[in-house]
Design a protein that fits this description.
heterotrimer, A mainly alpha, B mainly alpha, C alpha/beta, A: mainly alpha, 8 helices, B: mainly alpha
Chain lengths: ~220, ~220, ~260
């Protein structure tokens, strides 16, 4: 039905909804990356340097979250938390909480790999200079780790951006929801999903391109 | 609560069965298709490689959910009649195939050119080289990412709940809708997903060990 | 006597760099020809052109009467289809600097592979032939081992067995001892010497000057893509005529006297 006359006027009309949906998706991804990074750093350090019980908690957290569907977490955040007495979150923040917890598990591994691949020579030189452990971490380990994991962080961000599509299940007005809206209200299925596809691809590869430029500038440490 | 559980558990297990069924079909179809597309990426003529590249990069650049909805909603507009289950499984298979194609390409590319030279020097033809020398070595490297794709597929099957397919997640939602203490069911469901994926990962680890004598 | 391997006016480029500039060479049956020269002189490239692992834009290479890799059709030179070339390669055995044994196969399977899949022998026949060659190179006790369990010298000997089991007309050796620890070089060279004595035609790229002097019937010195001098080892290595060869041999002074 929608195939024969591709409704370009519809594209023009629907564009704002899609555009703001895309913007919201990027914001959700960025916010979750930020919060998830805090979680990830804590997890990485806990796993690498903490006492045995902390290491166990981190391992369980990471393994558990990585093996369950994000959608389950999203539903739990929105429907399940209120039953535990946590009434704070609306649909938007429920999703952010869920995605942050989800990304935290992956980012723990990213940061852990980064910390472990800091060349031993750097930490030894830092020790030789006389830096205290906390100083070493702040001045040497973290900056170097960050440069090493920059590519992984970029990839994680793009993944998270694709995961924001699930926010549509909670009626959060991001890009996928915009496509669903168009689909349901106009029955122009081809147009709706073509726009969504094009915008996701455009945004995804566009961001990847930009991030690669940034990486080239910062990522190499040798 | 115990009464809830005795009524709910069979439903959940039935949902789990559907999830596993989806997983098995998609992994199989996706692996076969992905293998073919992977070879196309590696050895096809310019047009074939381009088509394969476009397919792989497009599908990998999209969220799974968009792919699922696009196929479920848009395909009928072309006159194809699909059940929700068929649409969902097809979409997931297309998704899986794209990722597996990239895995196949990466695995074969990582085989040192010297092995190809040696195989050529012995006088093996292209298909013989592929079958006897390249693929046996490449397969080992493909196992970990392939297992990851399998896990993602099981997690992706949960999205089919949005098409009304009663796999594990929707089964859980149905159960939760009827009972008044939903939390245990979130827990059980999460545990079931975890159990399935953890097992898949472990089996993958065993598979990888089977190839461990390849010291590359 | 007809040459078994004929290289005719071979030219090859890597991008703008001309690596082979008109190489012509004949190898008679049963001869051992050594290619020597500095790195970058083109000797490895020449070897790889012989069994069509590299392509080239001018010249021809023939094994017996058959041209390898290309054919002339109405005056135009076109590359043969890969299946034809694969069959041609069965007549040429190659041993590489980095052995390149197939890591997922045992020693026996490595050697028998070509016999079964290229020469279409039965498994039993192939195993019999393979075992005899494995014994010939002195590794019968390692028949069921995997490459990673062997030393470099042992792997290289298996590689030689793999190539020679196919009974090629010409064996190509590409600096086969360069990647080996010094104490392992000897065992490989003695296998090669054994092969030479049994009449195998060999084209050997090597830095091992003592071996070259002892075993080669003819030494070919290459520099910057051309053959500068060639002749029997007593002449070429002891009484070099050109300055370039003299300069090259200077670094082996202690070895060759």
């Amino acid at each position: 039905m929608g195939a024969y006359h591709f409704n370009w006027f519809l594209a023009w009309q629907a564009f704002p909804r899609f555009y703001w949906g895309l913007a919201l998706g990027l914001e959700l991804a960025a916010l979750s990356l930020l919060i998830g990074s805090v979680v990830g750093m804590a997890g990485a350090f806990g796993r690498s340097f903490g006492p045995a019980w902390l290491r166990l908690i981190v391992v369980c957290y990471v393994e558990f979250i990585r093996n369950i569907p994000l959608l389950l977490l999203v539903y739990f955040a929105f429907y399940g938390l209120p039953k535990l007495g946590i009434y704070v979150f609306d649909n938007l923040w429920s999703f952010i909480v869920a995605l942050s917890v989800y990304s935290g598990a992956y980012l723990t591994e990213v940061f852990r790999a980064g910390v472990n691949s800091v060349p031993v020579g750097y930490t030894e030189a830092a020790k030789a200079v006389g830096l205290a452990p906390w100083q070493r971490v702040r001045l040497i380990t973290l900056p170097v780790t960050f440069r090493i994991i920059l590519p992984s962080l970029s990839n994680t961000f793009i993944s998270l951006f694709k995961d924001t599509a699930l926010a549509s299940a909670l009626a959060v007005p991001e890009l996928t929801y915009a496509a669903e809206w168009l689909n349901v209200n106009t029955f122009r299925t081809i147009e709706a999903w073509t726009f969504a596809t094009v915008m996701y691809l455009f945004a995804g590869y566009g961001i990847a391109f930009i991030l690669r430029r940034v990486e080239r500038r910062y990522a190499v440490i040798r | 609560m115990l009464h809830d559980l005795s009524f709910a558990l069979p439903q959940l297990l039935r949902g789990l069965g559907v999830t596993l069924e989806i997983g098995a079909i998609v992994v199989l179809a996706g692996s076969l298709a992905g293998f073919v597309v992977g070879l196309a990426l590696l050895y096809g003529g310019f047009v074939v490689r381009l088509a394969a590249r476009v397919y792989v990069d497009t599908v990998r650049g999209l969220p799974v959910l968009v792919l699922i909805f696009a196929i479920y909603f848009a395909l009928p507009a072309f006159g194809l009649r699909f059940s929700a289950f068929q649409a969902g499984v097809t979409a997931l298979s297309i998704f899986a195939a794209a990722h597996i194609a990239e895995i196949v390409r990466g695995g074969v590319d990582s085989i040192p050119g010297a092995q190809v030279d040696a195989a050529k020097a012995v006088g093996l033809t292209f298909w013989q080289r592929l079958r006897l020398v390249i693929l046996p070595q490449a397969v080992r490297r493909m196992v970990p990412p392939w297992v990851n794709v399998a896990v993602e597929i099981v997690k992706g099957s949960a999205l089919l709940s949005l098409l009304g397919i009663i796999e594990l997640l929707l089964a859980m939602q149905n159960v939760v809708g009827v009972t008044f203490s939903p939390l245990p069911f979130y827990g059980v469901t999460a545990f079931l997903y975890f159990a399935v994926n953890f097992t898949v990962s472990r089996l993958g680890g065993l598979l990888e060990q089977r190839f461990a004598y390849l010291k590359y | 006597m007809a040459a078994i391997l004929t290289i005719s006016d071979l030219h090859k480029r890597f991008g703008p760099l001309e690596v082979l500039r008109g190489i012509s060479l004949e190898v008679q049956a049963g001869q051992v020809v050594a290619l020597v020269g500095a790195s970058g002189s083109g000797k490895t490239t020449l070897l790889r052109c012989v069994n069509a692992l590299e392509d080239y834009h001018q010249g021809s290479i023939s094994l017996g009467k058959e041209q390898i890799g290309y054919q002339d059709l109405n005056g135009r030179r076109i590359r043969l289809p890969e299946t034809r070339i694969a069959r041609q390669r069965a007549g040429l055995g190659m041993v590489f600097q980095s052995y390149n044994l197939f890591p997922h196969m045992t020693v026996l399977d490595n050697v028998a592979l070509g016999l079964v899949h290229v020469q279409k022998k039965s498994r039993a026949e192939a195993d019999r032939i393979a075992l005899s060659w494995i014994e010939r190179v002195g590794l019968l006790d390692k028949v069921k081992s995997y490459p990673f369990q062997l030393s470099g010298g042992q792997q290289q000997r298996v590689a030689i067995a793999r190539a020679v089991a196919m009974q090629p007309k010409v064996m190509l050796f590409d600096e086969v001892t360069s990647a080996l620890d010094p104490e392992l070089i000897g065992e490989v060279l003695s296998v090669m010497q054994d092969l030479a004595r049994s009449g195998q035609t060999m084209l050997v790229v090597s830095h091992e000057m003592i071996f070259v002097r002892e075993v080669a019937h003819r030494v070919v010195f290459m520099d910057e893509g051309v053959i500068v001098e060639q002749g029997p080892p007593e002449e070429v290595l002891v009484r070099p005529k050109t300055e370039r060869l003299q300069a090259f041999l200077a670094r082996f002074r202690g070895v060759l006297r």
